[in-house]
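Hi, here's the filled form for the chain we discussed.

Project: internal
Contact: R.S.
Residues: 219
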Amino acid sequence: MSSQRKNNPNFNFSGAKIFEAVNGVDEFLKTLEREFFAEAKIQCNFNSAHNKADLILDLNFNFGLTEILRHFNGGNWGNFAYPQESQAHMSSCFTKALEKLNAQNSHSLDIIEASFHYKDTSIVISRTSEFSIPKQIGAILSKISQHFVYFTKGLTEMPYEVFVPVYEGKAQNVFEPKKNQSSYFDFWGLYFEDNIHHRVMIYSLQNKELCHEDLFLLE
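And the returned structure, exactly as it came back:
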Protein backbone atom coordinates (compact mmCIF):
# COMPACT_ATOMS: atom_id res chain seq x y z
CA MET A 1 0.00 0.00 0.00
CA SER A 2 2.26 2.77 -1.25
CA SER A 3 1.38 6.34 -2.07
CA GLN A 4 1.10 7.13 -5.77
CA ARG A 5 0.72 10.89 -5.36
CA LYS A 6 3.18 12.08 -2.77
CA ASN A 7 2.90 15.85 -2.37
CA ASN A 8 5.48 17.70 -4.42
CA PRO A 9 5.91 21.50 -4.48
CA ASN A 10 6.92 21.17 -8.13
CA PHE A 11 3.82 19.16 -9.02
CA ASN A 12 2.66 19.84 -12.57
CA PHE A 13 -0.45 18.73 -14.41
CA SER A 14 0.02 16.86 -17.64
CA GLY A 15 -2.26 16.20 -20.57
CA ALA A 16 -5.06 18.21 -22.11
CA LYS A 17 -7.16 20.32 -19.79
CA ILE A 18 -10.35 19.95 -21.83
CA PHE A 19 -11.94 16.52 -22.11
CA GLU A 20 -13.73 16.85 -25.42
CA ALA A 21 -16.28 14.07 -24.76
CA VAL A 22 -17.86 16.01 -21.88
CA ASN A 23 -19.87 19.08 -22.80
CA GLY A 24 -19.29 22.13 -20.61
CA VAL A 25 -16.27 20.72 -18.78
CA ASP A 26 -14.11 23.80 -19.43
CA GLU A 27 -16.72 26.07 -17.84
CA PHE A 28 -17.02 23.62 -14.93
CA LEU A 29 -13.27 23.76 -14.32
CA LYS A 30 -13.19 27.56 -14.55
CA THR A 31 -15.93 27.74 -11.92
CA LEU A 32 -13.94 25.55 -9.53
CA GLU A 33 -10.75 27.48 -10.21
CA ARG A 34 -12.51 30.73 -9.38
CA GLU A 35 -14.15 29.42 -6.21
CA PHE A 36 -11.13 27.55 -4.86
CA PHE A 37 -8.33 29.85 -6.15
CA ALA A 38 -6.64 26.84 -7.74
CA GLU A 39 -5.69 25.25 -11.04
CA ALA A 40 -8.12 22.46 -11.94
CA LYS A 41 -7.69 19.36 -14.08
CA ILE A 42 -10.07 16.48 -14.64
CA GLN A 43 -10.00 12.91 -15.92
CA CYS A 44 -13.08 11.07 -17.12
CA ASN A 45 -13.80 7.34 -17.01
CA PHE A 46 -16.89 6.33 -18.99
CA ASN A 47 -19.15 3.39 -18.25
CA SER A 48 -21.14 2.99 -21.46
CA ALA A 49 -23.17 0.09 -20.08
CA HIS A 50 -24.64 2.35 -17.38
CA ASN A 51 -24.48 5.59 -19.41
CA LYS A 52 -22.47 7.42 -16.76
CA ALA A 53 -19.02 8.84 -16.23
CA ASP A 54 -16.83 8.99 -13.14
CA LEU A 55 -14.72 12.12 -12.87
CA ILE A 56 -11.36 12.37 -11.09
CA LEU A 57 -10.63 15.95 -10.09
CA ASP A 58 -7.28 17.52 -9.19
CA LEU A 59 -6.96 21.01 -7.73
CA ASN A 60 -3.46 22.44 -7.43
CA PHE A 61 -2.90 25.35 -5.03
CA ASN A 62 -0.07 27.87 -4.74
CA PHE A 63 -0.42 28.05 -0.97
CA GLY A 64 -0.47 25.72 2.00
CA LEU A 65 -3.36 24.12 3.85
CA THR A 66 -2.61 26.25 6.91
CA GLU A 67 -3.23 29.39 4.87
CA ILE A 68 -6.57 28.23 3.49
CA LEU A 69 -7.70 27.21 6.97
CA ARG A 70 -6.79 30.64 8.32
CA HIS A 71 -9.03 32.32 5.74
CA PHE A 72 -11.77 29.74 6.19
CA ASN A 73 -11.82 30.08 9.98
CA GLY A 74 -11.63 33.84 9.77
CA GLY A 75 -14.87 33.83 7.81
CA ASN A 76 -13.26 35.75 4.95
CA TRP A 77 -13.27 33.00 2.34
CA GLY A 78 -15.12 34.55 -0.60
CA ASN A 79 -15.88 37.72 1.42
CA PHE A 80 -18.27 35.96 3.79
CA ALA A 81 -18.63 37.19 7.35
CA TYR A 82 -18.77 33.78 9.08
CA PRO A 83 -17.08 30.41 8.47
CA GLN A 84 -20.53 28.74 8.33
CA GLU A 85 -21.39 30.92 5.33
CA SER A 86 -18.10 30.04 3.65
CA GLN A 87 -18.77 26.35 4.25
CA ALA A 88 -22.30 26.47 2.80
CA HIS A 89 -21.24 28.63 -0.17
CA MET A 90 -18.36 26.31 -1.08
CA SER A 91 -20.57 23.20 -1.18
CA SER A 92 -23.41 25.02 -2.92
CA CYS A 93 -21.20 26.37 -5.73
CA PHE A 94 -19.54 23.00 -6.28
CA THR A 95 -22.89 21.17 -6.34
CA LYS A 96 -24.50 23.69 -8.72
CA ALA A 97 -21.52 23.51 -11.07
CA LEU A 98 -21.76 19.71 -11.20
CA GLU A 99 -25.53 19.84 -11.69
CA LYS A 100 -25.05 22.25 -14.59
CA LEU A 101 -22.45 19.93 -16.11
CA ASN A 102 -24.90 17.04 -15.88
CA ALA A 103 -27.64 19.10 -17.54
CA GLN A 104 -25.35 19.67 -20.54
CA ASN A 105 -24.71 15.97 -21.13
CA SER A 106 -26.82 12.95 -21.99
CA HIS A 107 -24.97 10.72 -19.53
CA SER A 108 -24.74 11.24 -15.77
CA LEU A 109 -21.49 12.52 -14.27
CA ASP A 110 -20.19 12.51 -10.72
CA ILE A 111 -16.88 13.12 -8.92
CA ILE A 112 -15.51 9.77 -7.79
CA GLU A 113 -12.32 11.29 -6.33
CA ALA A 114 -11.09 14.81 -5.66
CA SER A 115 -7.49 15.61 -4.74
CA PHE A 116 -6.52 18.97 -3.24
CA HIS A 117 -2.77 19.49 -3.64
CA TYR A 118 -1.43 22.18 -1.30
CA LYS A 119 2.19 23.21 -0.83
CA ASP A 120 2.42 21.37 2.49
CA THR A 121 0.09 18.37 1.99
CA SER A 122 -2.55 16.75 -0.23
CA ILE A 123 -6.14 15.93 0.72
CA VAL A 124 -7.64 13.01 -1.25
CA ILE A 125 -11.43 12.67 -0.95
CA SER A 126 -13.33 9.62 -2.23
CA ARG A 127 -17.00 9.52 -3.14
CA THR A 128 -19.23 7.75 -0.61
CA SER A 129 -22.60 8.40 -2.28
CA GLU A 130 -24.05 10.37 -5.18
CA PHE A 131 -22.72 13.95 -5.27
CA SER A 132 -21.16 13.35 -1.84
CA ILE A 133 -17.93 15.22 -2.58
CA PRO A 134 -19.45 18.54 -3.72
CA LYS A 135 -22.18 18.36 -1.08
CA GLN A 136 -19.76 17.68 1.77
CA ILE A 137 -16.65 19.61 0.72
CA GLY A 138 -17.44 22.56 3.00
CA ALA A 139 -18.09 20.29 5.98
CA ILE A 140 -14.94 18.28 5.25
CA LEU A 141 -12.80 21.42 5.20
CA SER A 142 -14.44 22.53 8.44
CA LYS A 143 -13.59 19.17 10.07
CA ILE A 144 -10.02 19.39 8.81
CA SER A 145 -9.78 22.75 10.54
CA GLN A 146 -11.32 21.46 13.79
CA HIS A 147 -9.01 18.43 13.92
CA PHE A 148 -5.88 19.99 12.44
CA VAL A 149 -4.02 20.27 15.74
CA TYR A 150 -4.74 16.61 16.55
CA PHE A 151 -3.79 14.88 13.30
CA THR A 152 -0.64 17.04 13.02
CA LYS A 153 0.44 15.79 16.46
CA GLY A 154 0.04 19.11 18.18
CA LEU A 155 1.24 21.04 15.10
CA THR A 156 4.59 19.19 15.16
CA GLU A 157 4.27 17.00 12.05
CA MET A 158 2.27 17.49 8.87
CA PRO A 159 1.13 14.39 6.96
CA TYR A 160 1.98 14.69 3.29
CA GLU A 161 -1.29 12.98 2.30
CA VAL A 162 -4.66 12.72 4.02
CA PHE A 163 -7.24 10.22 2.72
CA VAL A 164 -10.90 11.01 3.46
CA PRO A 165 -12.42 8.62 4.47
CA VAL A 166 -11.13 5.14 5.33
CA TYR A 167 -13.16 2.38 6.95
CA GLU A 168 -12.68 0.04 9.86
CA GLY A 169 -13.19 -3.65 9.18
CA LYS A 170 -12.29 -6.12 6.46
CA ALA A 171 -11.40 -4.52 3.16
CA GLN A 172 -9.06 -5.22 0.27
CA ASN A 173 -7.24 -1.99 0.97
CA VAL A 174 -7.71 0.30 3.95
CA PHE A 175 -7.75 3.26 1.55
CA GLU A 176 -10.56 1.79 -0.58
CA PRO A 177 -14.09 2.64 0.62
CA LYS A 178 -16.41 -0.23 1.42
CA LYS A 179 -19.88 -0.37 -0.02
CA ASN A 180 -22.80 0.98 2.01
CA GLN A 181 -20.59 3.37 3.94
CA SER A 182 -21.39 7.06 3.84
CA SER A 183 -19.62 8.93 6.63
CA TYR A 184 -16.64 11.18 5.98
CA PHE A 185 -16.18 11.85 9.66
CA ASP A 186 -15.18 8.55 11.30
CA PHE A 187 -11.65 7.69 10.14
CA TRP A 188 -9.04 9.28 7.89
CA GLY A 189 -5.82 7.75 6.57
CA LEU A 190 -2.56 9.71 6.92
CA TYR A 191 0.87 9.32 5.32
CA PHE A 192 3.84 10.68 7.28
CA GLU A 193 7.51 10.91 6.32
CA ASP A 194 9.87 8.58 8.19
CA ASN A 195 13.28 8.95 6.60
CA ILE A 196 13.13 6.70 3.51
CA HIS A 197 9.94 4.96 4.68
CA HIS A 198 6.33 6.07 4.84
CA ARG A 199 4.37 5.73 8.07
CA VAL A 200 0.68 5.07 7.61
CA MET A 201 -1.57 6.15 10.47
CA ILE A 202 -5.32 6.13 10.99
CA TYR A 203 -6.95 9.13 12.60
CA SER A 204 -10.18 8.68 14.58
CA LEU A 205 -12.25 11.85 14.51
CA GLN A 206 -14.44 10.68 17.37
CA ASN A 207 -11.53 9.95 19.69
CA LYS A 208 -9.18 12.58 18.25
CA GLU A 209 -6.44 9.96 18.23
CA LEU A 210 -3.93 8.48 15.82
CA CYS A 211 -3.49 4.72 15.65
CA HIS A 212 -1.43 2.36 13.52
CA GLU A 213 -2.81 0.95 10.32
CA ASP A 214 -2.58 -2.65 11.60
CA LEU A 215 -5.41 -1.96 14.04
CA PHE A 216 -7.68 -2.05 11.00
CA LEU A 217 -8.61 -5.50 9.67
CA LEU A 218 -7.25 -6.26 6.22
CA GLU A 219 -7.79 -9.33 4.08
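Let me know if anything looks off before we file it.
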